[in-house]
Structures are given as C-alpha cells and as structure tokens.
Write a structure and sequence with these properties.
CATH superfamily of the largest domain: Type I PLP-dependent aspartate aminotransferase-like (Major domain)
Oligomer: single chain
Distance between the termini: 33 Å
Helix content: 25-40%
Shape: globular
Order of helices and strands: EHHEHEHEEEEEEEEEHHHEHEEH
Largest sheet: 7 strands, mixed
Number of helices: 9
Structural class: alpha/beta
Amino acid sequence: MARPWNFAAGPSVMPEEVLQQAAAEMLDWHGSGMSVMEMSHRGSEFIQIYTEAEADLRELLGVPADYAILFMQGGATAENAIVPLNLLGRMAQPKADFVVTGIWSVKSHQECQRYGDAHIAASNAAPTVIDGVQQQPFTWVPALDTWQVRKDAAYLHLCSNETIGGVETMAWPDMASLGAPEVPLVVDASSHFLSRPFRVEQTGMIFAGAQKNAGPAGLTIVIVRRDLIGHALPICPSAFDYANVAAQQSMFNTPPTYAIYMAGLVFKWLKKLGGLEKIEQLNIAKAQALYGFFEQSEFYRLPVHGSARSRMNAPFFLPNAALDTDFLQGAQARGLMQLKGHKSVGGMRASIYNAMPLEGVLTLIDYLKDFETAHG
C-alpha cells in the first residue's frame, strides 16, 4: 500500500527510514530481548540510547558545552509556563519581554502574565503597509529597529516560526544591537527546529516540541545556557525546575523514553543525510518550488509577506471558501492529506517539514494546477 503524502502541521510526517528501523527494533532492541518501550529509563540499554541522542543533537546544532540539553514533556504549550517559572526569578522584579508574531507568541505572552510583568516589545498584531501593500495582522515580522526591549527584562521571548500563520523570523537578533546585551534571547523554535543551522550561542535558550521535525509527540527539547539555570520561582513545580532536570540528566522523573529513542533515530538520519546545512538546502528547494507556483498563480492567495514566508508551513487560500470542501476531497483522493488550515484562520496549509521529500511537494503542485484549471 502506497503511503500518502502527509502535510499535517504536527504530529507530522516522519522519515520513512526511521519508521522502518523502529519497526525492525520494536520487539528486540540490539539483542536486548526488549522493546525500548519496556526498558527501565535507568537501565544500561536506555542510558546508551539517551547518551547517543544527546551527543548527536549537540553535534548537529553545535551546542556549546556551557549549554544543557534537557528532554522534557508537555510540549511547547507547557514550556510557555515553564520558561517564566524558571527565568523570571533571575531579576529582582519578575518581568519579561515578548515579540508577538502570531498566535503562539500571543499564547506565550498571556501565559507569562500569570507570573510576572509581560511586556510586548514588538508586535505584528495590527495591519501595516509594507512596500506600498497593505498587510494583515500576523502576516509579517516587525522590523528589528522597532523592537523595544527593556534592559532589566529577565529574557526576550521570540517564536521564530509561527506554525499557524506561516510566519518565520529568518534572522534572530543580536541582543547588543537592541541595546540589551544582558537580556537573554529565548526562542520557541518548535516548527522549524532542525530545519536549518541555528547559532545556539546567540540565544540564552531554545525550546521545541519534537513532533514537527525531531520525533513523535510527547517530547520537548530544551537547550538552555547553564548560567540561566537555578533561578526558578518558589511556585515552580520540582519536575519543571531546570536545575532538577539538568542535575538528573533529564531523569528527575521518568522521561518520555520511546520518544527520545525515536528522536535519536531522527538525529542519526539527519547526520547521515549531511547535517543541517544539507537539510536546509533541501528545504529551500521545496519552499521555492511551492511558493514559486503560488506566485505565478492568479487563483490562490498567499497571506504572508514574501520576506516572512515560512519554509515549513505554507498557508494559502482559495478564491472562494465554498471550494474548500471540494479541494480537500480531491486532495485526499490523490493521497494528499491534512491540508486543511488551522481552525482559527481557515483556508489551507501545507506543512513541508524535513521528512517531506521534494516529490511530495511536486505532487501537491500538480494537484494545485489541476484544481485551478478545473475551477479557475
């Protein structure tokens, strides 16, 4: 049976090679006689899996030694609370700044308000005009020279790829250039994590839910500078305190063992492929093919400004919402799955993560052409 092309925003498509290896090892991991699902997280077999996964991730991203890698649970949604609970205590007055670029950064800002002073340093939540063209909210990235970061903020939060809106911040700021060199940059990179090289040392912390590019749902990866650990607010639950998690090598409580194993296989797949430089080239080729088609079409509409279009999540609209059902049914008949846009914005969305090959994108483009011919 042919596998469909899965354009889901997450949980999302996994590399077929990884799934095949996991299937082969399901009942017996490396002669242990056990499935990884059955292993004690403190046994030598799983310790090997964990150690290799951490080392491979550190190599892929070039993570410096003064950063801890934590494997946690709860997804990026939980981290919206866990981050302020851990970092607001760094300063005498609990305050943090936020760059609002879409729905997820709005959620992050709202969550932080539970624990301290959450200030919006920049926002795209209102319409604007760029190059003489009116832009709707959440379809562009605020220019760096408009960011107003407080020098005494505990951190600056940025969601660098908004999964729902398809807005990607390509260039992360140097905090010194914003007049706040002592303020650490905290990046929610969930939906483009491992899609391209990152300068980890440019940040105080990066976190990501694994279910886009790094593995299955249930695992959250946190890369945090060690000097930022140990400042948790008194109300922070012990299992969410980075100091506890780091001291116990992510085993303060039982970690998501199978998700870590699967992520480890993804890391090895990326290394075998040629690392993040290679996967970035492949992702650029896919995005250029898809956006290139949309730009020459008079039928489909792209909501996001060209300078901020995500390589991972491409939202688009048909000329008439009455066509949406026919479009989705036709797509499914061709094995093109999960193209419906998020319920909060409507329309369509194609998520073309690392594991989506160019062939899948080209198959989608062929369908887009045929649908336009039939309904244009």
